[in-house]
Amino acid sequence: MCGVLCVCVFVGPGENLQDIICFWSSREVRIFKSTAERKPSIKMTTSNGELLGLAFMAFFIITLSSTARYYFKFFCFIAFSVVCAVGPVPLMLLRPRDYRNALIPAYLCVGFGKMLGASFTVRGKENIQRNHGGVVLMNHQSALDLIVLAELWPIMGRSTVVAKKEVLYMFPFGAACWLWGTLFIDRQNRDSARNVINKEAKAINEKQAKLLFFPEGTRGNGDKLLPFKKGSFHVAVESQAFIQPVVISKYHFLKSNAKIFNRGQNIIKILPEVPCAGLTKDDIPALMERVQKMMQREYELLSEESLSINNISEVH
């Protein structure tokens, strides 16, 4: 039997030829000459091999490292969210400040969230009354709450969300947010923020609009909801509107401290409306306590159910 061995020998610098010596057997030796014109194709092959190797290495690291996977998924989510928001801007310019401008980005955001493993089931749709406006309150856990907004936007009707003014300057995402009617407030200037919100509150009754708030004011991912801020309750009482509590189960699949971003099924529950007719500013503390207790109780129930759905055993 004859063994097979291939050896490539390159001639020195300045030469135009390279000798490829192939030993097909122990008795026969053939020498093929190839011109320098083949060098670019050899370099291209090497380059493609390097890219393939880097891609494989990145895939290998992301697969094995939860930290790498965490950052990779969040990068993809943020990048895709910006693309989804900015892509339809030319269409948004035809009707600026219209809530319907967010419908296409919302649809795309929900779909991409499922691809990343963040899936949501919406319950309590029968509690939505589209024949009048109101104040919608949601618990806030992560940047992934953008998917929650995307789930709610098509079913709530005429809506607008309240965000800090810094978001407006996050170009081009901020421009898209403005075009679909986001209300920007300056948290450092309470009087200014309240005046802006009070003006918009008129739309609750005049346009049957819904204002979406995160009453905690900041992200919280513990077992207890953070204390609520008074701003949204002032709007509800002043406009004598309904409060619509919306509770999202705890993101057990997401652990920021441990840098874990797995797949998870989550629950969004829309609770019955809380009327504010006849209430005054003096009733706000009691109203806040009532609504927070209601949402806290539901948060605990949904989070426990979410553990069961995702087959997770959480150690406290």
From TrEMBL:
It catalyses: a 1-acyl-sn-glycero-3-phosphate + an acyl-CoA = a 1,2-diacyl-sn-glycero-3-phosphate + CoA. Residues 134-251 form the Phospholipid/glycerol acyltransferase domain. The keyword Thylakoid does not apply. The keyword Membrane applies. GO terms for biological process: phosphatidic acid biosynthetic process. InterPro entries: AGP_acyltrans, Plipid/glycerol_acylTrfase. Its EC number is 2.3.1.51. Pathway: Phospholipid metabolism; CDP-diacylglycerol biosynthesis; CDP-diacylglycerol from sn-glycerol 3-phosphate: step 2/3. The chain crosses the membrane at residues 51-67, 74-92, 104-122, 134-155, 167-185. Keywords: Acyltransferase, Lipid biosynthesis, Lipid metabolism, Membrane, Phospholipid biosynthesis, Phospholipid metabolism, Transferase, Transmembrane, Transmembrane helix. One of its GO terms (molecular function) is 1-acylglycerol-3-phosphate O-acyltransferase activity. GO terms for cellular component: endoplasmic reticulum; membrane. It holds the Pfam family Acyltransferase. Belongs to the 1-acyl-sn-glycerol-3-phosphate acyltransferase family. The HXXXXD motif is essential for acyltransferase activity and may constitute the binding site for the phosphate moiety of the glycerol-3-phosphate. This is 1-acyl-sn-glycerol-3-phosphate acyltransferase. It comes from Anopheles farauti.
